[in-house]
Specification:
Low-confidence stretches: none
CATH architecture of one domain: 2-Layer Sandwich
CATH superfamily of one domain: NADH:ubiquinone oxidoreductase Nqo5 subunit
Oligomer: single chain
Distance between the termini: 48 Å
Strand order of the largest sheet: 1-2-5-4-3
Largest sheet: 5 strands, mixed
Strand content: 25-35%
Helix content: 10-25%
Number of helices: 3
Order of helices and strands: HEEHEEEEHE
Structural class: alpha/beta
Number of strands: 7
Length: about 150
């Protein structure tokens, strides 16, 4: 449910049925959606609203809060010069969400990086494997419970 203050925002209104909450700060709109709605929200933002550029995908570890992780997609409309942030929260017990690669091919490496550092699995990703750390590396170093000094070998 979107706050009343966003009722006049056309982008927020177009995503209202998929949104759990949203806010407008510093001229940028953030819409939070359930993990099961992320692909639908990305598709609508791209095809119906003109947010054709995916600039990044990132993760946030909110430990000890549950749901522990946030997956954030940063979108841009090249024609209107607007920005949109789509955010979804996933559980720390089973951190997984549907991949956005079916909507934005550019999500591929961003999602791999988020998997690499946070351990969030992107379902139906075409090639989900580590991108910066070696395959034999154990753990995910941007998790808040990862040892500060790193793993000792």
């Amino acid at each position: 449910m979107l706050p009343e203050s966003l009722s006049e925002n056309s982008t927020a209104s177009a995503l209202a049925d998929l949104a759990t909450t949203g806010k407008l700060e510093f001229g940028e709109l953030t819409i939070e959606v359930a993990p099961g709605n992320i692909v639908a929200a990305l598709g609508r933002a791209k095809h119906d609203l003109g947010f054709t550029r995916l600039s990044t995908v990132c993760g946030v570890d909110r430990f000890p809060v549950e749901p522990r992780y946030e997956v954030i997609y940063h979108l841009q409309s090249v024609t209107t010069k607007e920005r949109l942030r789509l955010k979804s929260r996933v559980s720390g017990d089973n951190p997984e969400i549907e991949s956005g690669c079916s909507v934005f091919r550019s999500a591929n490496w961003y999602e791999r990086e988020t998997y690499d550092f946070f351990g969030i699995r992107f379902l139906n990703h075409p090639d989900l494997k580590r991108i910066q750390l070696p395959e034999q590396f154990e753990g995910h170093p941007l998790r808040k419970d990862f040892p500060v000094t790193g793993n000792r070998y």
